[in-house]
Design goal:
It is a single chain. The protein is mostly helical and 176 residues long. It has helices at residues 2-6, 10-25, 36-39, 45-66, 70-87, 90-106, 110-127, 133-146, 150-166. Helix 4 runs parallel beside helix 6 (90-106) and helix 7 packs antiparallel against helix 8 (133-146). The radius of gyration is 17 Å and the shape is globular. The model has no long low-confidence stretch (mean pLDDT 93).
């Protein structure tokens, strides 16, 4: 589903993501999770299933974003947040909150963007998953630009450049 969304095949992407969500919502799938140790050091099938479901909500949110449906995008992110919070998965929460931050920037709501952006940074640092840390710093910087707080904007954008270089995130470096 995610790959099809990147290829702009939105109808087929939606079909696959909704099917994936249905499978992940079914508790009986916990009996058949393949290679459980890849996804959970504790070998917790429920955690793996719920993590998958949270990521599916994230992928649906990004599909709705590409289709221009902000309401469904944000709704899916909040559904994912409920799951991420319930299972205490900071990597999942970091991604969801980062995407909420970006969604609120596009809705011209910089205060919400900053709120979720700061939470996303904490989650990313807690989980050790720092691939999007520089991107998140850039998003917070953008939010401060829209608030015309150029000192804080510069602080976050400078941090974004530094972190993107440190983490070898060259794809997001030019944006900062």
């Amino acid at each position: 589903g995610w790959l099809l969304s990147q290829l702009k095949n939105y109808p087929l992407s939606l079909t696959h993501l909704l099917n994936a969500r249905k499978i992940a919502e079914d508790k009986s799938t916990e009996k058949n999770i393949w290679n459980l140790s890849w996804f959970s050091p504790k070998l917790d099938a429920a955690y793996v299933r719920m993590t998958s479901l949270g990521f599916i909500h994230n992928d649906l949110s990004q599909l709705y974003n590409q289709m221009g449906d902000k309401q469904k995008e944000i709704s899916q992110l909040y559904e994912g947040l409920k799951i991420g919070t319930a299972i205490n998965n900071s990597e999942l929460l970091g991604l969801l909150r980062s995407n909420l931050s970006q969604a609120y920037i596009s809705k011209n709501d910089p205060d919400s963007a900053i709120f979720f952006g700061e939470q996303a940074l904490k989650d990313m640092r807690q989980s050790g998953y720092k691939t999007y840390e520089g991107h998140q710093l850039k998003l917070i910087g953008e939010a401060y630009v829209s608030k015309k707080d150029f000192n804080l904007a510069r602080k976050y954008l400078d941090q974004s450049i530094y972190i993107n270089q440190l983490n070898n995130s060259t794809a997001k470096l030019p944006e900062a």
